[in-house]
Predict the structure.
Amino acid sequence: MFRMKRRTALLMAGLSAGLTLYAAGQQTWAAPDQLDKPAGSPTVKNVILFVGDGMGTAHRDAIRLATKGITGELEMDNMPYSGLIHTNSADPKSFITDSAAAATAIATGVKTYNGAIAVDLQGKPVETILEQAKKAGKATGLVTTSQVTDATPAAFGAHTAKRSAQSDIAKQYIEQTKVDVILGGGEDYWYPAGQPGYYPDHPAEDPEEESKGTQGNLVERAKQLGYTYVRTADELKQAAGHKLLGLFANEEMFQQRPEGEGDVYNPAVPLPDMTKKALDVLSQNKKGFFLVVEEEAIDEMSHENNGPLMIKAGQQLDEAVAVAKQYAKRHRDTLVLVLADHECGGLTVETPGGTDESGDGKTISGEDGPFSIAHSSQTFALDWTTTGHTAADVPLTAMGPGAERFVGVYENTRIHDILEQVLFAKTRR
């Protein structure tokens, strides 16, 4: 009886605030003001934050249908708590965010302009949650299938007025922020122009790729600072130590082009493998760790309206989430979040055939498919309405201590604020 009265009271409070509350399976929604209460907040030892770049609700649906079927659940969806995130930036020219401004909001709790890396509207550096974790003695890590110095990881581990300053970002990682584990692509920004590293300039798959670093040989500098440097999957498996730098491609760990024009998703080291190695290294720190894992190809393939490879990248993200969930089940003081920085492509999931409302099928933004639904004879189509980002809210799912605080509908800056609360027992600013 007490439980029923309490649940009724919560429901009425939510309705009076103008929010719809619902419970679906294990997923729970509540009014955002319930997240402000610091009393009883758990102190979290480890955080694993997944970013499916560009991954909106329809992206998750498409990945789920293709992988698990109509009634199945992805690893990233089969988590006990859910939220919905507003993604707008504070850019005076366009409120539609880019990855830099969105990641900055998540990492710092501050809205900023598009292209900014952990700086505010005046260009002043703002401390990130990863830097706070580092100051608290925790190990830190950045893992991505993009360049390790691309916008999303950069916003957690560096400060620049422009996201394009990727060599500056790399230098900050190893000399200032001192990120312990850095795994992904983007070797070109770590070597000076004309001095290629392990991956040759002008490769056949993309002749435009070449070394272009502006801060000297940063790989050698990283080695001087105690990093173990690896370049291949085998080297990654064998690597030991507490500080690890792995660069596995000139630029992104895939080639993004319109569907059927030479597009490839084949990372030299799969995202689940990079995630597992990062956890192995970071978990050596007895004070815990803060790890960001990004699947960039969801966004890049959405920019090209490439449904098959968007789904493939999403499946790899889900496998990486499975790795993290297994870790969290063994280490109950670990918080796992899966979210997106923004939506890309204006995507919907439809029945195949019929009129393509977004175009005649000859344009890049059009109907894509059909795709088979797992464990079913049915199919679905994807309908792209743009090759750019949109203002659509994006879903968040969470498990572990403090996960219930991410329930509701809120601004992306709130993610930082809640992480600060549960990691360091701080009240909301």
Remarks:
- Residues 1-39 have pLDDT under 50 and may be disordered.
- The chain has twelve helices and 17 strands.
- Residues 30 and 206 are 48 Å apart (CA to CA).
